[in-house]
TrEMBL record:
Signal peptide: none annotated. SUPFAM superfamilies: Bacterial exopeptidase dimerisation domain, Zn-dependent exopeptidases. Residues 163-257 form the Peptidase M20 dimerisation domain. This is Amidohydrolase. Gene3D superfamilies: 3.30.70.360, Zn peptidases. The lineage of its organism: Bacteria, Bacillati, Bacillota, Bacilli, Bacillales. It comes from Salinicoccus roseus. It comes from the Bacteria. It holds the Pfam family M20_dimer.
Length: 429
């Protein structure tokens, strides 16, 4: 399934192939399918069992534009400018399917009570799929959720990822002949440039760890026409949604100021606004222990050769193989209290129900997610082995949650309550 999805990459909200084969497989295994969740064509929930607890496993399957690559240790597109699985979501969702199918067999064997769900979540890469699903309430009755991400090490992700707003600003001015009557024109592109300058001055006056990046998505048509329309797309990230809301307020004022300066108009649209993730210690610890209980990673000579050759294009080139593909498992290798640069819509789910997350070794150290090297290795046994380790850890953990081993559900909920600190979840779009 992971190979099949890798072979048929589709980008955000268009993942008909991946969601289709997953639904079919889960249906064949006796799961009930709820389709079109949150009004999204490629979102679904597959369910088995009855009563509480209700345990969810989150899957993703969207690819990235422009990251097409063959299974080759050197750069070689499969399709010019085509999409590719440079974030390994072909593995991410499939591990979830694998985990719930295994779990269902075990539940039947032991006559276990409780409900398990697989959440087919589209469009993680544009950070909004789970927000739309959350708005429809599908995560509300969960007792806990589990997920993972392909990475370059085996670890629990006991760290918070940043909240982020994805927002587009559209300026509208007045067109004019740029040489014959420039005085009649009001350049929307000038507004965009002045806005960007304002934001670049703001950089010094935002909390540490803030990230602000943009691309100009529309800069006009030709130099001899004063641009009537221009657009700029911003990602603003911070350690919490509240912090990002503060930064967003200031950036919106800068946009208004830029429009005022040269008499244009501005409108904005929020594309996605996920929360920061709330790392749940009791769940992460349990997932870590269950990763230790799972079959360890082992590689063949062929896989070793592939990875060593791929590493020629990585900053880790020449490192010994054991350091390139670590098989060790660590609890929390991240810096406590510091949020990890990068964002995910898993943040929203982690504000609705206790959520545990792990990463496994699916690519050599030095591989950046969203690169051709990542696409290449996520289509090989190296990726699939990491995927099976993740599936095993999630299935074992979901089993422990179903039997509420050592009152883990209560502990997870207590941690969740403390982290949320009395605040209610509100969808950012
Ligand atoms: Zn990803």
């Amino acid at each position: 399934m992971a190979q099949d999805i890798w072979d048929h990459p589709q980008t955000a909200y268009e993942e008909t192939y991946a969601s289709g084969i997953q639904k079919k497989e889960l249906k064949n295994h006796g799961f009930t399918i709820k389709d079109q969740v949150g009004g999204l064509d490629t979102a679904f929930v597959a369910e088995f069992g009855q009563g509480r607890p209700i345990i969810g496993i989150l899957g993703e399957y969207d690819a990235l534009p422009g990251l097409s690559q063959t299974v080759s240790p050197t750069k070689k597109e499969a399709e010019p400018n085509g999409p590719g699985h440079g974030c390994g979501h072909n593995l991410l969702g499939t591990a979830g399917v694998e985990a719930v199918v295994a779990l269902k067999e075990k539940m039947e064997e032991e006559g276990l009570a409780g409900t398990i769900r697989y959440y087919g979540c589209p469009a993680e890469e544009v950070l909004s799929g789970k927000t739309h699903m959350a708005k429809s309430g599908v995560f509300d009755d969960l007792d806990s959720a589990l997920t993972w991400h392909p990475m370059t090490r085996n670890a629990s992700m006991d760290v918070s990822m940043q909240s982020m707003v994805s927002i587009k600003f559209h300026f509208k001015g007045k067109p004019a002949h740029a040489a014959a009557s420039p005085e009649a024109g009001r350049s929307a592109l000038d507004s965009v440039e002045m806005m960007n300058m304002g934001v670049n001055y703001l950089r010094e006056h935002v909390p540490d760890g803030t990230r602000m990046h943009y691309t100009i998505t529309d800069g006009g048509l030709a130099p001899n026409i004063v641009p009537e329309k221009a657009s700029v797309w911003y990602f603003l990230r911070g350690s919490s949604k509240e912090e990002v809301e503060g930064i967003l307020h200031r950036v919106q004022n800068i946009a208004k100021g830029a429009a005022l300066m040269n008499e244009t108009e501005v409108e904005s649209e929020i594309i996605g606004f996920p929360y920061e993730t709330l790392p749940n210690d009791p769940l992460n610890e349990l997932m870590y222990h269950n990763m230790l209980e799972s079959a360890p990673l082992e590689y063949t000579e062929e896989e070793q050769a592939f990875v060593e050759e791929l590493a020629h294009s990585l900053p880790t080139a020449g490192k010994p193989f054991e350091e390139l593909l670590p098989t060790s498992i660590s609890f929390n290798p991240y810096q406590p209290g510091v949020s990890m640069p990068g964002s995910t819509d898993v943040g929203d789910v982690s504000w609705i129900t206790p959520t545990g997350t792990i990463t496994t070794t699916c690519a050599p150290v030095g591989t950046a997610l969203h690169s051709w090297q990542a696409t290449a290795v996520f289509g090989t046994q190296v990726g699939y082995k990491g995927m099976h380790l993740a599936a095993s850890s999630m299935a074992l953990t979901a089993y422990d949650l179903l039997i509420n081993k050592d009152d883990v559900l209560e502990k997870a909920k207590e941690t969740f309550k403390q982290l949320r600190d009395g605040k209610e979840y509100q969808a950012g779009i």
